[in-house]
Amino acid sequence: MTHIEAEGLAIEFPLYHHNARSLKKRLLAGHGRLKAEDSRVVVAALRGLSFRIERGERVALIGPNGAGKSTLLRTLAGIYEPVAGRLILEGEVGSLIDALAGMDPLLTGRENIVLRGLYRGMTEMAASRLATEIVDFAGLGEFIDLPVRGYSSGMGVRLGFALATAMAPDILLMDEWFLAGDADFMARAEERLTRLVTGSEILVIATHDMTIVRKWCTRVIRLEGGAIVADGPVAKILPDGG
Ligand SMILES: Nc1ncnc2c1ncn2[C@@H]1O[C@H](COP(=O)(O)OP(=O)(O)OP(=O)(O)O)[C@@H](O)[C@H]1O
Question: ABC transporter domain spans which residues (predicted)?
């Protein structure tokens, strides 16, 4: 059964700094998220998170800048390796985190789509049908047959969005900026996004936008300083429009 389970999950980023010695001296007295180690300084981005997300839940990760939302999303996506704790994701994961993640920059948009379809076990015929459908939606014109490394960031979002929303995964991980295309594109994207979100069994979205939380989510996990400070139903965590 699709679910996510984390226990004592910790992520650290080592920082090498030309002035690490003086920084270390100042940190020795500190007790925050920066730790001085032998030859480096370490940022504790996530500090011992424990939670379980069940099938049917749509979870918003909220919190101030630097709270750890993106880091948690990326850890769930398998991009970062925890330094401690346990993480289990049961179900197929799809992520809308980096537009062009998993694409070969040297291949064209169309080639990347077909490749993704084949990777997901489609026949060649099904993969090229998928490509036609995505090409129509992405509306990239002749750019679809040029290497994706030449795309503008907006074009990358269109292609990444169209591709990622073509096949609903069990677990959908999303960064809010994916909901910020140009107005014309977003009007067309709305229906597709709704289909994707309702078709997935679990949604986890990192966002600052409480309208998004109220519209899409059933549960809120609030992070601060790399730790969970609140976790519960949307109505309980954001009772008064906050
Ligand atoms: N690649 C990295 N290298 C070093 N430190 C990082 C890296 N990514 C994140 N951090 C640090 O980890 C902490 C959590 O950052 P994260 O990006 O997860 O926060 P966030 O809640 O998504 O913030 P925002 O709302 O600003 O996007 C911050 O202190 C940040 O400086």
Answer: 28-242
